[in-house]
Structure formats: structure tokens, C-alpha cells
Design brief:
The protein is built from four helices and six strands, in the order H-H-E-E-H-E-E-E-E-H. By secondary structure, the chain is α+β, with helices and mostly antiparallel strands. The chain has a single domain, classed as Roll (Nuclear Transport Factor 2, Chain: A). A six-stranded mixed beta sheet has the order 2-1-6-5-4-3. The longest helix is centred in the first third of the chain and has 14 residues. It is globular and about 45 Å long.
């Protein structure tokens, strides 16, 4: 299967939109088994088991998540999405975080997902350490 601009973009839009539904299986289904997820200020996570664990930790820490796309650029196998991520923590606290995600897609699965954001801003708003 060839990764077209359209299929790559749809995969990423669906993945980002899936956070509102909070279903871990739906969120993780976008990824290849050997994918790498890198919150760029911290160490990358390699492989689906680690990615699943960090996504579960996010779902456990927040009662609501909405990843709003501001600007999106795509080509075959590559998508760049500037976003504002909105999280509501279990204690009611709110986080508003500007993020840019870079997604590499192969065989209609995300193989690399790198998020660029201000770590200090996230930690200040959330009280969490990544």
C-alpha cells in the first residue's frame, strides 16, 4: 500500500481526533509496532508497549483532551501539525499547550511521532514531570 498525501493526512487527523474519545485501542491503532514517540524535550520511547504505557498515563492523568489543529502540512508519508492541546486534569486544572507534531507514516501506520513543545510550560501548568 502506498502512503499518499491524503491517506497520511487522514491517519494523523484521525489519531489526533481520537484523543477526545479517550479509547486507548483506537489511539494506539494508528501506530506501527516498532514506532518511536518522542516528546522532544525528553527521551524518546521506542516500541508499542512503551507508547501504550505513556498514552495510558496521559489518559489516567486527564479527564478531557482535545488536540486542535491550527495548521497542517502533509505529503506522502509525512505530516506536520501545529496544534493547541487542551487538557482538563482530574483535579479540574486546565492546560493549554502550543505543540508542533511531526509524523512519519509508512504502510498507513505512524512510525515516528515527534512533538515539539515548551516542557517548562507543560510542567508549570500540569504540576507533572515528564
Amino acid at each position: 500500500m502506498s502512503d499518499t498525501k491524503e491517506s497520511s493526512e487522514k491517519l494523523v487527523r484521525d489519531f489526533l481526533g481520537a484523543w477526545e474519545g479517550r479509547n486507548l485501542e483506537t489511539i494506539c491503532s494508528a501506530f506501527a509496532d516498532n514506532a518511536v514517540y518522542h516528546n522532544v524535550p525528553v527521551k524518546p520511547i521506542e516500541g508499542m508497549a512503551g507508547i501504550r504505557a505513556i498514552f495510558q498515563a496521559f489518559l489516567d492523568g486527564f479527564k478531557e483532551a482535545r488536540l486542535e489543529i491550527v495548521t497542517l502540512a502533509s505529503g506522502p508519508g509525512l505530516v506536520i501539525a501545529e496544534r493547541i492541546d487542551y487538557f482538563t486534569m482530574n483535579n479540574g486544572g486546565k492546560i493549554v499547550l502550543p505543540v508542533t507534531g511531526v509524523f512519519v507514516v509508512k504502510n498507513n501506520k505512524i512510525t515516528r511521532f515527534s512533538d515539539y513543545f515548551d516542557l517548562a510550560d507543560f510542567e508549570r501548568q500540569s504540576g507533572m514531570k515528564l
